[in-house]
């Protein structure tokens, strides 16, 4: 490709360069960093679903639509979330990529996934605000802290933990898990002894809005829409799953179980919590009234009173605070990743993941001060139309397109090999969400309004493979990946190349061949380059670049890749392919 371009070395801000805090936020998580066992990754991921929004959401659904329709809604939504989450969880754990990077290669394109980064970021700050409101309510009841002050405290308390990254999050989840499990189970144990007939009465509960205890299709559809707002939770699970160690013959069973439990498995616990939260709210309804029954702290107190008496309030408050810290560190962490992905593509700048923590928390704090808790059902019902269109389109690519050969059989996430927008996934999501939002607004009638989320899911599942077939799959890859694509020969996927831009060694999945640098560049330097003109994706400049052989067993992330033999060196037999390897990657 000629002489290397004279381009200054890229330097990163101190926080952006510190991977102990950065956690490879915009790139592939290398095998050298995945030092946790499958069980540890799974337990950390499941620790993040300690949130009590499930209690509030379940209670709100059953209070509004009655027991039969409400429970059917919760179980239907859980089934959809579980099924769509299986392929996504496996892809994230297999490829070491977060939800944004998976979305890029699963039918959306490099800039197409920018929109989904915003969708995901909105999920994290909406639910941070919801969880923070619940914690502030507990502080208000236990310590008489004014709600506005409580909102601020719930926001500030997570910053030191999230700032330190995955290592700190894993410790917090592990240390708080025993207390949380006791606090979760105790109210139900008390009621089993003190009010054994409550479940029977709950089964005939007709709600507080006159819905009745029988089944109603409209209520069922609307309730499912509210419960489906949680479908983007798989993105937060993916932020942990990308650190899953490589699957081997020795750990295969543990790996599969851990991915299933920590990925789609979260919704099994989530659905149980929604039903349990609705039950606790029903039992407390007569004592505290509808408004307070929908706030998880009040039903907790009422359930514990027969055994704990005056200690019920501080015990319930402690449980609520621990639960909300466990989930909001995850919300803040995932939000920082999502905002990083968005702004790195839009601005070609990356000051570091930690700075976006403050942006995410500022938006969440504003929502709390605006009392978003009061508009819970409408807000979540609207959001679910967009969220499910996105997740269903990604799942369709992984489950339908790839097995049928409509898309590449691997996930490509690097800018150098992707089209800006892929109409297969991106088009499916936009069309499905637009139609479902119009339906949700009531334009197509009452039935379509109630089942708008089903419309979004069905359209996305059908349109993604249809558009991939109509376009011949040509918008998935702008050019072949000769570094670690399915046709490349690689001796070891953990082999490293030295990035010609930042001069740091990275494993092969994080490397692209760059004609501007006349060598290897890491995925983040590739994303942040604002002056290359994307020549790698244009003929004739987009031909594969000759690079040294990768270093096997060399240092990664911060080390120097040395010892590679230059491809085309006449002393070793003349020109050779980009990589000289012993076997093909399967």
Automatic annotation (TrEMBL):
<feature type="compositionally biased region" description="Gly residues">
    <location>
        <begin position="557"/>
        <end position="566"/>
    </location>
</feature>
<feature type="transmembrane region" description="Helical">
    <location>
        <begin position="255"/>
        <end position="287"/>
    </location>
</feature>
<feature type="transmembrane region" description="Helical">
    <location>
        <begin position="354"/>
        <end position="376"/>
    </location>
</feature>
<feature type="transmembrane region" description="Helical">
    <location>
        <begin position="450"/>
        <end position="470"/>
    </location>
</feature>
<keyword id="KW-0472">Membrane</keyword>
<dbReference type="InterPro" id="IPR030191">
    <property type="entry name" value="CodB"/>
</dbReference>
<feature type="transmembrane region" description="Helical">
    <location>
        <begin position="175"/>
        <end position="193"/>
    </location>
</feature>
<keyword id="KW-0812">Transmembrane</keyword>
<feature type="transmembrane region" description="Helical">
    <location>
        <begin position="41"/>
        <end position="65"/>
    </location>
</feature>
<keyword id="KW-1133">Transmembrane helix</keyword>
<feature type="region of interest" description="Disordered">
    <location>
        <begin position="557"/>
        <end position="586"/>
    </location>
</feature>
<feature type="transmembrane region" description="Helical">
    <location>
        <begin position="421"/>
        <end position="444"/>
    </location>
</feature>
<feature type="transmembrane region" description="Helical">
    <location>
        <begin position="307"/>
        <end position="333"/>
    </location>
</feature>
<feature type="transmembrane region" description="Helical">
    <location>
        <begin position="108"/>
        <end position="130"/>
    </location>
</feature>
<feature type="transmembrane region" description="Helical">
    <location>
        <begin position="142"/>
        <end position="163"/>
    </location>
</feature>
<feature type="transmembrane region" description="Helical">
    <location>
        <begin position="71"/>
        <end position="96"/>
    </location>
</feature>
<protein>
    <submittedName>
        <fullName>Purine-cytosine permease-like protein</fullName>
    </submittedName>
</protein>
<feature type="transmembrane region" description="Helical">
    <location>
        <begin position="217"/>
        <end position="234"/>
    </location>
</feature>
<feature type="transmembrane region" description="Helical">
    <location>
        <begin position="382"/>
        <end position="400"/>
    </location>
</feature>
